[in-house]
Design brief:
The complex is a heterodimer of chains A (295) and B (322).
Chain A: E1 3-4, E2 7-8, H1 9-40, H2 47-65, H3 69-90, H4 100-122, E3 138-140, E4 145-147, H5 148-170, H6 172-182, H7 184-189, H8 194-216, H9 226-241, H10 246-266, H11 274-285
Antiparallel strand pairs in A: 1-2, 3-4
Helix pairs in contact in A: 1-5, 1-8, 1-9, 1-10, 2-3, 2-4, 2-8, 2-9, 3-8, 5-6, 9-10, 9-11
Chain B: H1 18-33, H2 40-62, H3 71-86, H4 92-114, H5 119-139, E1 156-157, E2 161-162, H6 166-189, H7 191-201, H8 203-208, H9 213-239, H10 249-262, H11 269-284, H12 290-304, H13 309-318
Antiparallel strand pairs in B: 1-2
Helix pairs in contact in B: 2-6, 2-9, 2-10, 2-11, 3-4, 3-5, 3-9, 4-5, 4-9, 6-7, 6-9, 7-9, 10-11, 10-13
Classes of the chains: A mainly alpha (295), B mainly alpha (322).
Chain lengths: 295, 322
């Protein structure tokens, strides 16, 4: 063991790891928000609640059917994604022509409903979800102890983020999506079913949130308010990064997670607020956000 | 809204439309008579929240800026009002002024940051800044953390009138409420208010007409924060309590809900909305957590079915201004 700035290295690397973990979730969630905003012009306030629903979905199928973590990684995003598609068809599609703020208000209402219902049935205490057997334990890297599950979360979320980036920036489907973001009516005139693309985009964005929820379940407890606490931080991340670029959302998410982790080591009192402070500074110095176009 | 509305208006009588004057008289009479029929404490709470919603509506309804962090000004004004009355022994009017001034300062700082971005970002920035101040309230010693500041003395108004007397307290709250209501009405119908509405309708055009819209937006933001602070500071004296509930994000959501239910951009909407929501919470207290779900359903229903809110629908149905 050695010391850096008078701090034991294990504590420093431990917090860095936690920072990276939090950063994975920031990145996944802000990525979903950015994708949804690009197509729907709606800020999905229920994103946090849908992340929570993903975690609950994994918890419930384990409790009642015994289906474990690995299938849950597929099932929960599917279920929550489909519920998102229903939400888009029944509610959101009527709002596209209105002021952005109505989308925010509607999804805020949905978030209250999701959170209220889960709170009624499961209480506000956290429910435990065990780490899958194949990922239990960890390895000693010499300078720190790395639990296998946490390593998996970081790798998995990076993979999903990069995969999403690749699909949107480098494939034909992504090209349609970007084109529809820029000019939906023109893309429609080329014979592409834009409304269906919008519906599926929302479903995909929500599924990403649910995936993050399943991955978070073994780390944090599964609780109804796990999403609402996180979503506000993710909003700050989105303001800092700007929603113009996918890669920007990923970099900002991980970066801020690490900054938060480091703050926990050197100035623990500020760890809850550091991201908001960074947001304030960015607004002063670069109002459009680090990667943003003006908006 | 008529985009070519005449920007320069001359001040005339206080109320522009007879319907507004009529509604104001009805509201005043109701508030004077109501304490004989129901709990004065509940009515005072309604007035505080109605003022809070009025302050919020000034920003969202007349400048088109949706702040999702108005709990910051309400809650922090409430803390400073409670603290100054309890620990520094301020008289109630000084405590309320202290709380309100706190909200003004917070509003200036937050407003300066938030108006740098528009639309949806504005909402996210205000929410994030409010959450930051919530964490400060949680960590600072003087706020009492989870307990909040309890048993705040109501004290003597101007050192003379004992406010432990419910009737005296009621008159004070009614005075503050009506005073602020008329002040807000005046702002909305002043030349300054007309510029705000012009910014709401078409900011680019307002800029091209030579208005420095950022300054107007900042002043409107600070005014809104100050009035929200007046509501919070008064509430702390009335209920003799300041707590984390007042600064947390659900409070920001609640004021949005009140205004939305009553009618965005209507003068009486926030008052009606606050009354409806508080009565609902009071009646629904036995069902516990379902209140959250019901609030969510109201949000969704308002956005999808009646975006004008109660007062807005009424006004357009009767073709009058309210």
């Amino acid at each position: 063991m050695f010391e850096i700035f008078g701090t034991p290295s294990t504590a420093l690397f431990g917090q860095l790891l936690i920072g990276l973990i939090n950063g994975s979730f920031y990145a996944l969630l802000s990525l979903g928000l950015a994708v949804i905003f690009g197509m729907l012009n709606i800020i999905n306030f229920s994103h946090g609640a849908q992340y929570m629903l993903g975690a609950f979905c994994a918890y419930l199928i384990l409790q009642y059917t015994g289906i474990g973590y690995w299938p849950a990684l597929i099932i929960a995003p599917l279920v929550v994604g489909i519920s998102g598609i229903i939400v888009e068809r029944f509610f959101l599609q009527w709002l596209y022509k209105l002021d952005h703020l109505y989308g925010l208000l509607l999804t805020f209402g949905l978030a209250l409903i999701f959170e209220g219902v889960t709170r009624n049935y499961f209480g506000s205490a956290g429910l435990p979800y065990t780490v899958p057997e194949s990922l239990q334990g960890g390895r000693n890297l010499g300078f720190m102890f790395l639990p296998n599950y946490r390593a998996w979360v970081i790798v998995a979320s990076l993979t999903v983020c990069m995969g999403t980036w690749f699909v949107i920036e480098r494939t034909k489907l992504g090209a349609y999506l970007r084109a529809a973001t820029e000019n939906p009516s023109l893309v429609r005139a080329f014979g592409i079913n834009v409304p269906r693309m919008i519906t599926l985009t929302y479903g995909f964005g929500v599924a990403l949130a649910a995936l993050a929820g399943v991955m978070a379940a073994p780390i944090y407890n599964v609780s109804p308010q796990m999403g609402s606490e996180l979503i506000i931080v993710v909003f700050a991340v989105v303001v800092i990064g700007g929603m113009g670029s996918i890669l920007g959302a990923i970099v900002t998410g991980f970066g801020l997670g690490v900054i938060e982790g480091l703050t926990k080591v050197f100035f623990p009192e500020a760890s809850n607020t550091v991201i908001f402070v960074v947001m304030a500074i960015v607004l002063l110095v670069r109002p459009a956000g680090l990667f943003g176009r003006s908006g | 809204m008529d985009r070519s509305a005449n920007i320069v208006t001359t001040p005339r009588d206080t109320f522009r439309a007879p319907s507004e004057l009529f509604a104001f008289v009805v509201m005043t009479i109701l508030l004077v008579v109501a304490p004989f029929f129901t709990y004065p404490l509940f009515l005072m709470q309604v007035m505080c929240f109605a003022l809070f919603a009025l302050a919020f509506n000034l920003l969202v309804g007349y400048v088109g800026l949706l702040s999702f962090g108005h709990a910051l000004y309400f809650g922090w004004a409430s803390y400073l009002s409670a603290y100054s009355a309890k620990t520094w022994g301020f008289t109630p009017e000084l405590a309320i002024v202290t709380g309100t001034a706190t909200a003004t300062v917070c509003g200036f700082v937050a407003g300066t940051l938030a108006i740098r971005r528009q639309g949806i970002y504005f909402a996210m920035i205000t929410l994030a800044l409010a959450q930051m101040m919530y964490f400060f309230a949680l960590q600072f010693k003087f706020t009492g953390g989870e307990d909040g500041i309890q048993a705040v003395p109501r004290g003597y108004l101007f050192g003379l009138i004992d406010l432990r007397n419910e009737a005296a307290m009621y008159v004070v709250v009614l005075g503050i409420f009506l005073g602020c209501f008329l002040f807000i009405y005046r702002i909305i119908h002043s030349p300054f208010g007309e510029v705000l509405k012009a910014i709401r309708e078409n900011e680019t055009r307002a800029i091209s007409l030579g208005y420095q819209t950022d300054r107007y937006k900042l002043v409107a933001f600070v005014l809104s924060a100050t009035l929200a602070g007046a509501a919070g500071a008064t509430k702390a004296i009335v209920l003799q309590l300041a707590s984390l509930t007042d600064v947390n994000w659900p409070m920001s959501g609640e004021v949005v809900l009140m205004t939305l239910v009553g009618g965005l951009g209507t003068i009486f909407g926030p008052v009606v909305g606050a009354s409806v929501i508080l009565v609902m919470q009071y009646k629904l207290a036995p069902v516990g957590e379902w209140v959250l779900v019901i609030q969510g359903v109201i949000f969704v229903a308002c956005v999808l079915l009646f975006r004008r809110g109660i007062v807005g629908e009424l006004a357009s149905g009767l073709r009058i201004r309210l």
